[in-house]
Amino acid sequence: MQTTVSVERATSEGWTDQQVVDQVMAGNTALYEIIMRRYNQRLYRAALSILRDSAEAEDVIQDAYVRAYQHLNQFAGHAAFSTWLTRIAIHEALRRLHLRQRNPQITEFEEDEESMNITEPSLDPEQQASMLELGQLLEEAVLELPGQYRSVIMLRDVEELSTAETAAALELTEENVKVRLHRGRAMMRDRLYARVGSQGKAAFPFMGSRCDQVVSGVFSRLEKTSC
User: Fold this and answer.
1) What's the CATH number of domain 1-115+205-227, 3.40.50.1100, 1.10.3880.10, 1.10.1740.10, 3.30.450.20?
2) Do residues 48 and 57 make contact, with C-beta atoms less than 8 angstroms apart?
3) CA 43 to CA 62: how far, in whole Å?
4) Gap between the Cα atoms of 8 and 136, Å rounded
5) Where are the domains of the chain?
6) CA 29 to chain CA mean position, Å
């Protein structure tokens, strides 16, 4: 008889993506939350790098999770599950971008500060202000890049995927990723990276209530599709 495993237990035991997927396919659908919380930030950053709209990026990742859930049996394991999932989100974001370009009346929304910036609670007010300023500089520099460089920079430098992982997610050659990464970094200027340093990862957050909102939204949509 199938034993139901809690999200907390599976998380604490450090289950691999494949272990979680196997359990979800066996009927323990609650464990899908682990996948969502594990990759919410990566998918958000990938979608944001294409669409430059936080609300639409959030909607994209919900669509991606629903689509991935509905096609879990098609995951062949030729690439990492995270890569497969990221591709789904990227394809949906590109589809929406193309739709937007065909329909000029669909305009981009401005990013709200809350959706794009966080500070470390352990820092004092002066440090928080400095970190926020650096994060804003990095965000502006990345989001102003041409699209072909923006996604590579976001996945490779911000999300810290390897060259191979970035190439697989964007369906590019590794050499192409290296070229775009080099050119994108040059456009952002060395002095900007030197100033931001290790604090750059704090930019482009997807945490707290937004993460909870996506998890809740995906489960709600899955319940409707199963009725």
Assistant:
1) 1.10.1740.10
2) yes
3) 10
4) 35
5) 1-115+205-227, 118-204
6) 22
Q: Which residues of the chain have pLDDT under 50?
A: 1, 105-123, 127-128, 130-131
Q: Is the pTM of this model over 0.85?
A: no
CATH 3.40.50.300 is the classification of domain 118-204: no
Straight-line distance from the first to the last Cα atom of the chain, in angstroms, rounded to the nearest whole number: 25
Q: How far apart are CA 94 and CA 96, in angstroms?
A: 5
pLDDT tens sequence across 109-121? 333 333 333 333 4
pLDDT for residue 11: 83
HSE, side-chain direction, 13 A CA sphere, residue 69: 26
